[in-house]
Amino acid sequence: MPGSDPPGHSGRTIVVAFIVRRVIAAVLMLAVVSMATFAIFFLIPRALGQTPEGMASRYVGRDATPEAIQGAVKRLHLDDPLLVQYGRFAQGIVAGQDYSLGPKKAECPAPCFGFSFNNNQPVWPTLLDRLPATLSLAIGAAVLWLVTGVSIGVVSALRRGSVLDRAAMTVALAGVSLPIYFTGLLSLSVFAYTLGIFPGGGSYTPITENPVMWFQALVLPWITLAFLYAALYARLTRAGMLETMGEDYIRTARAKGLRERTVVTKHALRATLTPILTIFGLDLGLLLGGAVLTESTFSIQGIGKLVIDAIRGNDLPVVLGVTLFAAFFIVLANLIVDILYAVVDPRVRLS
Amino acid sequence: MRKTNALAFAALGTVLTMGLAACGGTAGGGGNTSSGNKATDGAAASTAKYNDAYTKVVNPSDAKGGTLKFALTNEPDSTDPGNTYYAWNWNFTRLYARPLMTYTAQPGEAGLKLVPDLAESAGEVSADGKTWTYKLKKGIKYDDGTEVKAADIKYAVARSNFTDELTDGPKYFALYLDAGDYKGPYKDKNLDDFKGIETPDDYTVVFKLKAPFSEFDFLVSNPQTAPVPQAKDTGVDYEKAVVSTGPYKFESYEVGKQLNLVRNTNWDPATDTTRKQLPDRIEVQYGQNGEDIDNRLIAGQIQVDLAGTGMQPAGRAKVVSDPKLKDSTDNPFTPFNRYAMMSTKVKPFDNVECRKAVQYATDKTATQAPWGGPLGGEIGTTAMTPTTVGYKQFDLYPNGADHKGDLTKAKEALTACGQPNGFEANLAVRGDRTKEVQVAEALQASLARVGIKLTIKKYPSGDWSAQYAGKPDFVHKNNLGIMIAGWGADWPSGFGFLSQIVDGRAIKPSGNYNQMELNDPAINELLDKGIQTPDATARNEIWAQVDQKVMESAAFMSFVYEKTLIFRPSNLTNVYVHPAWGMYDYTWLGVKQ
After folding, report:
1. In sequence order, which residues have a C-beta less than 8 Å from that of residue A94 and are 6 or more positions away?
2. CA angle at residue B50 from B45 to B56, to 5 degrees?
3. DSSP-assigned letter for residue A265
4. What is the reported pTM?
5. Which of A212, B68, B152, B165 could disulfide-link to B227, CB 3.0 to 4.6 Å?
6. What number is the ipTM of this complex?
7. Are residues A64 and B237, on separate chains, in Cβ contact within 8 Å?
8. Which chain A residues have a beta carbon less than 8 Å from that of B285?
């Protein structure tokens, strides 16, 4: 609606300045997150009396001799002052780093998020390797839950008190209440192992290798993950719609003689969608940082599975890397949502 | 011996034809015991019963082809045979890595005998017991067609035991070889500086030891003697492209995700008495959901849970309640003993009578329950486990016919200890291990019956050994009287089982497994005497004596000899439980197409 925009040039400047400001803030935020996570994993244990040897003992095998532990301390520079260690970590992100693997050095090119000493892999390529699975899962599920959740919410609100409304809200309550590892295993048991309609767990295949298999393997995870969120979104949409439908401007719109369809979609839904979009951005951002339960249940080797394994294995560099990675997505999603706000709700744009 | 078998079998509820509890296995025995045709012993698929694969080969078949699928809940420490310490991986790496010696491919006691693998025969030991010589079979090739040389075995031991980078495997060779202050092949490129092993020609490997070690054949059966050509070594990255000597070779490996193996055409079955090469491909998925693995096994979509630690509680409940499904399971002993150690340095456990009171008062059926009842383990009364060569059954502290505790005797012991009304003590447990916490609670309830009040202290398992129970200083400061732990032997002999956990000289300031801090000169001397005794029968007698002495100290209390419930899909062929691993022999398996 160009007519309602402020004069063109200054409007663009405002938008550009807004984006630049937000990007700078995002970068600063990531720097703070990196310091905070580094402190959690390296400073706090040291403050609580953990020695460099104690930390190194996590990176050596079961039969750790004092020499092996000392070797690990030196190799990982754990005896350096913490500031130097953080400096090395930050430098690695910007300029990359080298690690000794024995007869040769391993390069960890920028952005080197660190190096997993549990499986001897640089963290960044591992993250990139796991990202497509998480993206496939999160985006597919997001489309599914947004469409179904909002549709059900709208229908429920418009037919408040009907059998349809009650049934939808009961299913929604189940969706919110049931844990993913339950619904996931149940769906696998019924649709994969009993009926044989879909492949079982662990069958995720990259889309580049086999698009058909990719799709088939993701149907159940998509539905399982979307079931949880769709339920939540249906309830939110329904509540929002009910509130909005009681607003004065809806009455005005109806009084103007607008068709009910127009009233619902152009006026009521648009206002309801604003808070939904905010939550959607956050949810999607979080999921891109790893859908831990769904990935674990369906054995999908994504970011979420990576981080849960890293936490179990005390693999601090990976946990640190994923935290930063997830923080990046959340910050990015927030940024996009802020911009989308302006599109959905003219009040934001005008202010 | 027979009595033990009878007890074990009664618990299993099956008729076994041979006992694993027997002693007198000829550890270190040589010869060319071939078992390549044992497959004809097995039962047909449709008639296989519960626990059949424990004593014979189930679904015997020499049919080739198909893809054998393994799944694992976590990932290996490394696929590098020189850099791994998981029992299942020592079993699995034999598919692509042949050590000097290996175990006979047979179920039951016979499987605990060693046979030559890359070696022509068992090691020849010098008169002073300190030099072990192995001759290599001629014409053994890597998957690239080049021949295996003695120097490659020397290099493999050097890299796995003398470097800072390869930290995941055990360091027995560094401990026992007379290598001076050798810096390892990554710091010192000249392999001639490694004096612990000599290779006078391309087919002779001579190990030089600091002291006699009669079970050296067991040591060289560990995957660290699988040859690695120096030119192919890439350190910790070697796991991505391991050079194969076994029936399979790497096709692709995505760290933490998937390993695919294909046939190694340069493997010659004529040189190998223990392996088969039935499937065309072997696929291993890592990081798979445990419950889902069980469902996929039952559905036949995969064939083996690689870890060999058995089904998850949900899957277990499902199969035991269905007789048909139960017939597709096996319930072998693992090499693990699950036990409590009482610190001889923490009051009042420094008094043997107080320790005895714990032994008598414990309700062992209650401490057995968290492991899954009889399916999860048989109630234990010794330090060594039934599948350890040298094991003898005895019970110094009989606590009632039903094992629910003998409270009268417990109170007598308490009186003798000067604590007739009981006492308060701390019980340490790995807080993130549900079963062990439940055992701690059961023990707490047991001992409360005689006035021993235990406070449970939980510590994280990751640092358990380095920071808490394995650190005597910490144990003393925090008065940790009882610690709940477990141990599985690296090789199935008394020495392999006991040396790290009962030898007083193995007590370490950190990473200590002798958590009771038992330092009995008589035990230490027996361990030395045993490992220097060349005769296997005499040696095994000594291990039984050590076990007796350990139990006399009353500082060690076994809860269970661990068992697992493994699912055996009907499309899995040539299946039997190998006693050395307590899991299926992965080099024998085939798959129905």
Report:
1. A110, A111
2. 65
3. I
4. 0.86
5. B152
6. 0.83
7. no
8. 202, 299
